[in-house]
Design a protein that fits this description.
The chain has two domains: about 15-75; about 75-105, no CATH class. Helices cover about 60% and strands about 0% of the residues. About 0% of the residues are buried. The protein is mainly alpha-helical and about 100 residues long.
Length: about 100
């Protein structure tokens, strides 16, 4: 006698209209109703979880950014060096003369 794998079951009672709708959609999709339901529910569950995480992360990120804007940290040496290089080369990456005009490349 072979052991039967016991998988969790999802059971739902639905109105006849929904049953017919699911059966028709499954047939059009080339699936049986169980396959169609599993595929549809899995896609919906993943989408809901993904959207939930995106909103949660967006809120956390916004709070972090707001906190940094209110209380920015002291610039480190790397940032100060980058700012100096930017100032020395100007906004377009070309070096500036001491009078503020761009040197020819």
């Amino acid at each position: 006698m072979t052991a039967v794998s016991k998988q969790p079951r999802l059971v739902a009672r639905v109105p006849e209209e929904i049953h017919t709708l699911v059966a028709t959609a499954a047939k059009v999709s080339g699936l049986n109703p169980t396959q169609f339901i599993i595929q549809s529910v899995t896609e919906a569950a993943r989408r809901v979880i993904s959207e939930s995480r995106s909103i949660e992360l967006s809120t956390q990120d916004a709070e972090c950014i707001a906190a940094l804007l209110v209380n920015p940290g002291k610039p480190n040496d790397s940032l100060m060096d980058a700012a100096k290089r930017y100032k020395d080369k100007g906004a377009y990456g070309r070096e500036l003369h001491h009078n503020g005009t761009h040197k020819k490349a």
